[in-house]
Amino acid sequence: MIQKIVVILLTIAVLTQSMEVYIGSLDGAHKVVGEVYAISSTQIRIDGFSYDGTAPDAYFWGGSGSPSEDGYIIPDENGGTDPLEEYTNKDIILSLPGALDTTDYISVWCREFNANFDHVDIPSDILDQLEASTKEESEESDEENTVIPEIVEFDNCVELFENQLQVSWSLDENIDAINFKLEGIIEDDEWMGFGLSGKSDSTFMVGADVTIAYFDGSEPVALDFDISSRSQCSNGDGVCPDTSSELENDVFNISGYRIDGITTITYSRPIESLEDGDISYATSGDSYVAFGIGPLSEDKLVLKHSVRTPTGFTVDFSETGETCEKLENENTEVTEPFSDLPAFLSDETNIRVTIGPSFGDRGYTHVTGKSSWGIAFYLNGWLIPELEVVRGTTYTFTVETGNDPELSTKNHPFYITTSSEGGIEQVSDSDETVYAGYEDGEPTIAGRHCEIIFVDTELEKMGDLEDEIECDEGEAAILEWTPDDETPDELYYQCTKHKYLGWKITVVDAKEEDEASSSVMIRAVIMISFITWLLV
Fold it and tell me: I need a surface site. Which of 72, 180, 333, 364 has the fewest CB within 10 A?
């Protein structure tokens, strides 16, 4: 079985390594030798790597400038960070913590003696070279020499969503890990995820330990996520990758491909948990699992699932021998957006701000062209309307979007900004300009949580949907804001903690006829006053 898995991983690696750039040779102390290649934006391959294994504290090492103690460990080919053992003429693939252009070198380094056994320098234009290599190879290939991979199946498989998502696996005792294949019918801007439930005796999202997988361009991605709450990731809380909390991504051996609209990503995970937040896999008996599919934002932020785990779903991770039917991409259904969106608000100076569902392609994405985390702001009952405001006019916002600091799903402070994304608290060096709702690094406008609940969502117009609103105890927050001559023509109302909840504000000057009417009125008042004075 191990041989079959190796064939899978090597075969898939061929697909994802169509681009390859030679970096240089290793030939140094402790019999370190090898030929180093860049094979993706985050991976290198070392052919024929050897090292005598006698140094007390040696690692693959990366960093800025020249090799030094200020660098960092690059996990070995199994994703481990223990000191290196002996290698003899072995071909290995290393996955870097970040993109190749964020490190200046790859070294074999001993921390105890601050010794560089040898290293190769990473060209500053390495990503450009990889792109050029891919283009050149593409131009030279044709149908006769195109390699079609031999797809070798894992021995065990469970269908998670009918003809949409399935997971296959096999135990790998050599590295104390489980090798997974996650296969789904998803779009380019969607993720698929699978892992263990947050509770050992039931289906539960909070506390779940899952792998989120997707393609970033041509690169397969698989990341270890710990789910601390049912909200968008913000400052390490919510649906967040381990790396956002300074933990390691324990997923390794990542490969993937796309064929006929079906995305396949393989990866390995340790059987035993390695750090806080991770959950160990039981290799016999039923385990409650968590899985789903959902959208990605433009910057690859994982957004709320569109389909999720049915209650009570379990998987036996022993060698069950169960199989799955081959996925067939029959997804031709097109979701029509609400016909009365986008909505516009003007001539309204009193505005109630609440929370409600984003409606994905029917709503938020249709209006903005971006994906949102399952919820969005509603202004006077309308999903993210474009708000027109007039300079010199005061607007009163009654904000009921949540203010619970212990529950991020009910904590969405409202602010007005130049950022089309929002989430200023997620960005340490934001260059946006704030016009209201956020001062000295803290949100200032956050009232009780009120959420719009829709009873029927199948109608053509959002305005025809029957809805009700549920509010927590507490008071609304009040924001009074008067745009002036210094206010730019375009702003956005957003959430300080989470991205992609709001939309656009258009700022206009007072209309000339209004100004003329005001002038006539003033003159009339003066004239009446003058006449009254004469008659007295």
Answer: 333
- The amino acid at residue 232 is Q
Per-residue three-class SS string for 100-139: HHHCCEEEEEECCCCEEEEEEECCCCHHHHHHHHHHHHHH
Name the amino acid, one letter, at 488.
P
Distance CA 229, CA 207 (A): 8
Chain centroid to CA 446: 25
CB atoms within 10 A of CB 160: 23
Burial group, residue 119, by CB count within 10 angstroms (0-12, 13-18, 19+): buried
Q: How many CB atoms are located within 10 Å of the residue 413 CB?
A: 24
288 and 202 Cβ atoms separated by less than 8 Å: yes
Instruction: Determine contact, residues 422/438, Cβ cutoff 8 Å.
Output: no
3-state secondary structure at position 262: strand
Q: 415, 403, 428, 411: which is closest to 373 by C-alpha? A: 411
176: phi then psi, degrees, rounded to nearest 5: 50, 50
Distance, CA of 16 to CA of 309 (rounded, Å): 30
Distance CA 434, CA 487 (A): 11
Helix (H, G, I), strand (E, B) or coil at 371: coil
Whether 393 and 482 have beta carbons less than 8 Å apart is answered as yes
Angstrom distance (rounded) from CA 148 to CA 153:
15
- pLDDT tens per residue, range 140-172: 444 344 333 444 467 789 999 988 999 999 887
Taking the C-alpha atoms of residue 220 and residue 211, their distance in angstroms, rounded to an integer, is 13
Residue ranges with strand state E in 296-406: 307-308, 314-316, 344-345, 350-357, 375-379, 382-383, 386-390, 395-399
- Residue 65 in this model has a pLDDT that exceeds 80: yes
The whole-number pLDDT of residue 24 equals: 93
Distance CA 383, CA 231 (A): 19
- CA 68 – CA 54 distance, rounded (Å): 20
| Alpha-carbon span 376 to 427, nearest angstrom | 20
Report if pTM > 0.85: no
List the beta bridge partners of residue 60.
74, 108
Bridge partner residues of 344 (DSSP): 386
46 near 26, Cβ under 8 Å?
yes
- For residue 342, whether the previous peptide bond is cis, meaning omega lies within 30 degrees of 0, is yes
What are the residues whose beta carbons fall under 8 Å from the beta carbon of 526, sequence distance 6 or more?
A: none
| CA dist., res. 519 & res. 213, Å (int) | 63
Tell me which residue of 46, 45, 99, 96 sits closest to 216, measured CA to CA: 99
User: Rounded to 5 degrees, what are φ and ψ at 427?
Assistant: -115, 120
Pairing verdict, β 438-439 and 442-443: antiparallel
Q: How confident is the model at residue 131 (pLDDT cuts 50, 70, 90)?
A: confident
Nearest to 445 by CA among 400, 404, 482: 400
For the chain, how big is the Rg over CA atoms in Å? 28
